[in-house]
Amino acid sequence: MNSAAVPDINRPAADLRTFTIGTSSLAAVHGIIARDLARAFRQKSRLLGGLARPFMWLLFVGTGYNTIARVEGAVSYQAFVYPGVIVMAALFGSMLTAISTVYDREFGMLRLMLASPAGVPALLTGRAIAAAAIGFVQGAVVLVFLPLVISVSPAQLMGVVGALALGAFATSVLGLLVAAPLRSVENFAGVINVVLFPLLFLSGALYPTSRLPALPRGVARLNPVTYAVDLMRLAVGQPAEFSATWSIGVLSAATLVVFGLTALVFNPEQRFIGRARTGGPERGGPPRGPELRGPELNAGRPNQ
Q1: What residue spans of the chain are helical by DSSP H?
Q2: What is the pLDDT along the chain (304 residues), one digit of tens a residue?
Q3: Which of 72, 92, 127, 204 is least enclosed by beta carbons within 10 angstroms?
Q4: How far is CA 110 from CA 16, 151, 271, in A?
């Protein structure tokens, strides 16, 4: 005899809980993106400084090197370096945006953000998308002047936009990885420069990595920015070291791996744990008064 199927009364509650968490995660990602973009575009001096850097390189360094350097497959050194300068603008824009994570940790905003059920993945996703958008905008401003240096077709221009978007997202995750274990803005300012310039100089943005000695050439192969620059060169029709499929695959895999590492080392309470271990008051809490012991403690009690 066939028995009637017993309905699972816990299934609707579980589905509702999953739907609630998913909706909360999307709302958290959207809120973090909107907040970070509003904060970034309010800091106009920082945006102008980020845009001035690549143009200064093209104007001063590029013009000087153009008189002494000849690169195979490029009309001039400025034409050779222009794809790398676009990536440089996105690299600095997206990685430096990660400083907002350190700000929020230092001043206690991360605890408020993580009060929702969304959790760390939603927080890091929103931060990565916002940083990638800022890096993409800075790179796009440099990209506008590309036809003045290199002749490109509409199809090539679409490829350049795709390479810029992928490179901006990959470098935004790298910035989050740098910011994840840091406790203060001062530490971030010191560490980020040590990370940024090797990423730039060992990426092929300023000179071909194929002519480097064996050791730096091997390090350049491990650098995700190398593949962003190479993909950009391939998009504008310049000679490239790798195929488009290989560069896209490496950038995608590196982005996923670095995002996973960032989620592992990210500790929103690190600032507060460090203070608690040293015996100091936690930020946002009441100051700890002097500890009374012995006769001082008894002196404050009424006589029995």
Answers
A1: 11-42, 44-56, 63-66, 77-96, 99-106, 109-113, 119-144, 154-179, 185-201, 214-221, 224-235, 244-265, 270-277, 295-299
A2: 454 554 444 445 444 444 444 566 788 788 888 988 888 888 877 778 778 888 888 888 777 777 776 776 667 788 888 999 999 999 999 988 888 888 777 776 667 666 666 677 888 898 899 999 999 999 999 999 998 888 889 999 999 999 999 999 999 999 999 888 887 787 887 888 888 889 999 998 888 888 889 999 999 999 999 999 999 999 998 888 999 999 999 999 999 999 999 988 876 555 444 444 444 444 444 444 444 444 444 444 444 4
A3: 72
A4: 27, 46, 10
Q: How far is CA 160 from CA 33, 57, 66, 233, in A?
A: 24, 20, 23, 8
Helix (H, G, I), strand (E, B), or coil: what is residue 154?
Answer: helix
CA distances from 273 to 34, 117, 191, 261, 281 (A): 29, 22, 21, 21, 10
Beta carbons within 10 angstroms of residue 252's beta carbon? 14
Domains in the chain: boundaries: 27-35+42-268
Cα separation, 274 vs 264, in Å, equals 18
For residue 200, give both structure tokens.
Answer: 């730039």
Rounded Cα gap, residues 289 and 70, in angstroms: 69
| Placement of tokens 């990565």 in the chain | 128
Nearest 10 degrees: CA dihedral of 228, 234, 240, 242? 60
CA–CA distance, 190 with 74 (Å, rounded to integer)? 36
